[in-house]
Design brief:
By secondary structure, this protein is of the alpha/beta class. The protein is built from five helices and five strands, in the order βββαβαβααα. It has a single domain (about 10-160), classed as Nucleotidyltransferase, domain 5 (2-Layer Sandwich). It has a five-stranded mixed sheet with strand order 3-2-1-4-5, sandwiched between helices. The chain is globular and about 45 Å long. The two termini are about 30 Å apart. One of its GO terms (biological process) is DNA recombination. Involved in the transposition of the insertion sequence.
């Protein structure tokens, strides 16, 4: 199932403060918790949701189901794209996306916040790729298999950076 991104997506937005002003980081997460797409905007409206969804769909293709929260920008944008029938919304359904914000918040706090939208966008993209590369779903495998996969991921990363 790893690398198969067409099953279920979870879309969510989170606010981030940049020099005292609020901006929104839109994120798409697949059913395994891997971050597919990140996009920073100043507004949280239909046009921002539409731009984000177009970007995600162009890069990753159609999803079978798209889980969102109650924000009304999502159905308005999905209606424009013609995939409103794929939307799912319900209590606790979007916890996958909400929990994927936590590592980013941790790094944000350690970095003492962000100063520019461009740096936030770059950081979100790089952080997502790093997290996806080293995420080996520890709770599903035994310790020995986890350590083998982790060392293989580190070796692959070092060969990429060399």
């Amino acid at each position: 199932m790893r690398g198969f991104r067409h099953w279920r997506w979870h879309l969510d937005e989170m606010y981030v403060r940049l020099n005292g002003e609020m901006v929104y980081l839109w994120r798409a997460v697949d059913h395994e918790g891997e971050v597919l797409e990140s996009y920073v905007t100043k507004k949280r409206d239909k046009s921002a949701a539409l731009r984000f969804m177009k970007k995600a769909l162009k890069r990753h293709g159609q999803a079978d189901k798209i889980v969102t929260d109650g924000l009304r920008s999502y159905p308005a944008a999905m209606k424009g794209l013609g995939n409103l029938e794929r939307r799912e919304m319900g209590h606790y359904l979007n916890n996958r996306a909400e929990n994927s914000h936590l590592p980013l918040r941790r790094r944000e706090r350690a970095m003492q916040r962000f100063r520019q939208m461009k740096s936030l966008q770059k950081f979100a993209a790089v952080h997502a790729s790093l997290t996806n590369h080293f995420n080996s779903e520890r709770h599903l495998v035994d310790r020995q298999t986890f350590k083998l996969r982790r060392s293989a991921a580190l070796a692959e990363w070092q060969s990429l950076m060399a």
